[in-house]
Amino acid sequence: MEKPRVVLGVSGGIAAYKACELLRRLTESGHDVRVVPTGASLNFVGAATWSALSGNPVSTEVWDGVHEVPHVRIGQAADLVVVAPATADMLAKAAHGLADDLLTNTLLTARCPVVFAPAMHTEMWEHPATQENVATLRRRGAVVIEPAVGRLTGVDTGKGRLPDPGEIFEVCRRVLTRGPGVPDLAGRHVVISAGGTREPLDPVRYLGNRSSGKQGYALARTAVARGARVTLIEANTGLPDPAGADIVRAGTAVQLREAVLEAAAGADVVVMAAAVADFRPAAYATGKIKKKDGQEPAPIELVRNPDILAEVAAGRVRPGQLVVGFAAETDDVLANGREKLRRKGCDLLVVNEVGERKTFGSEENEAVVLAADGGETAVPYGPKEALADTVWDLVAARFR
After folding, report:
1. Interval 265-288 mean pLDDT
2. Domains detected in the chain
3. What are 216-269's pLDDT values in tens digits?
4. d(CA 191, CA 264)
5. Are 181 and 152 in contact (CB under 8 A)?
6. Known binding site for CTP: residues?
7. Catalytic residues
């Protein structure tokens, strides 16, 4: 089979060196990659490096190999164009249709999916001009990944860091799988909770659960690839941040509730994939609870945690807001799931069977998605990404 053809555009930012890792992942996974750098980017990584790593010729000018009409042919032949890093200057040129080098010409001629991975200082990213350019590109169907938060050039820290190349690759892989067309979640803000809450008993112990957060992260990654703006509220996962998601950390059920309610106020969809502890210790011991010879430990009194899913479903602040819940069951799975759907008041409920060696921590899942209108969608055993896409298919259909 013919290899998928990817154009990797590299613009002139210090993060250009990280694109080498993205290029390696693309080529090693069977893609034919043509690197098109800007002239400014060659101050950071030279043309020889790109040519050696890609196995293809590298040029920045429309005048090289004129007989092949590269400023037209490269974009026409591509299955995907990804620009990483995409500087503020590059986003502005792309939004306004400027074409003063080979990369900007390629962007104008491409009819395939286009992904931008911005990287710049926080002030540049937050400037109204940049935000308007990003909104324009997204409106046209491009996937513009939200930059990460972290260390920037020099001592600066903030939003504007290039996401991890491995996570950018995952976005590209998913976008390639879906093919051309405006992403069906473009313009939507989705809030996703993931992981498992931990309820402190003393400074070293807690009540928790086996949730790894992998299903929630799969939902976040697939939503980004489908054009959504994603807020991921993570509880104790230890997983790498998905490219393009705004990350909010939460530890306990109470903290998760506060974060979800705040984010839900501006969301089109809220997906409660996190495993929220139903109970927490009534009292917190400020010192480690000691084991005493000859004595049994004192009973631990528990109190109920807030029901975040029911609260969000009952208190929707935006017209048409969709709420998706998850139900982890060990017996009478569908019967319990249908009762939970009725009780919680959500639009969709993903019901799956869990256990010590089932679902939690696994890369695969199997579920049935129940709908408030009576629909049932079975998702066979397979990657959690497949279940995530089924959920977004059902969500997108309801928006249509």
Report:
1. 93
2. 5-178 (3.40.50.1950), 189-399 (3.40.50.10300)
3. 999 999 999 999 999 999 999 989 999 999 999 999 999 999 999 999 999 999
4. 7
5. no
6. 278, 288, 306-309, 326, 340, 344
7. 209
